[in-house]
Write a structure and sequence with these properties.
Blueprint lengths: L12 H7 L1 H16 L8 H20 L7 H23 L1 H4 L1 H6 L6 H27 L10 H27 L3 H14 L15 H6 L1 H14 L6 H25 L3 H4 L1
Helix pairs in contact: 2-7, 3-7, 4-7, 4-8, 4-9, 4-11, 7-8, 8-11, 8-12, 11-12
Length: 268
Amino acid sequence: MGGPRGLDVSDRPLPRLFAYRALVKYLVLKDIKVRSRGTYLGVAWTLMNPLLTIVMYYVVFQYIFVVNIPHFLAFFLVGFLMWVFFSRSVNAAATCILDNEAMIKKSAFPLETLPIAAVLHHFFHHAVALAVALPLMLIFWGAALSLNLVWVTLVLGAFACFTLAVALWLSTLGVFFRDARDILDVGLPILMWATPIFYAPEMAPAILRPILAANPLSSFIGAVRAPLLDGRWPSKMHLGLIALWTAGTLVSGAWLFAHHSSRFAEEV
């Protein structure tokens, strides 16, 4: 069965994607509206959800489960919010091609817009959650106010690019391996506990620290915690690893998607 082919490398993908920016905007807004359709609070849940989550964790970690890490709530929220964005984005990306089968077979458009829209949808919610959490961290939970906070924006931008790269990988694999979503259901919880969200890397036994260091999420989270919680630059090691992970996954993910997207319409 024929269908609109995906974007070849020779098709100048960036200009073409820019030309379809209105489609990306439509897909993101559609997902936001669908999520809030039929609810009493509608889009207000985008604000209520992170606020209620933060309150819940504040009660648990302030009064019940006391952890010996300075400013633990801010420490935890940095890792937790970044993890939620990453895990939800890659989960959505794994089936974004299959979920839009009718659209792919009926219309010609850059198929990259689908994983991009999936990531941007969750990035919108992540930005709202950060807008709620950051002032609370700065005012109440010991975060440091300094010029080094610029690094938070830069690292989060790189993290969004890395997440998009993983989304391109998984959206491609999800077309040819329908078990991808089930594998993620098992793999993501394992990855969560192998990511220093609830604990500092130095708290792990020495034998496990190389595994934590090899986890790319560790570098991104550590590079956000440094300027936000300690008022200092991220370490050179974290910045170097972030550059390698982001560039490597983005180039390989874009190539993989472009190389196989011409077969998507036949496979879905």
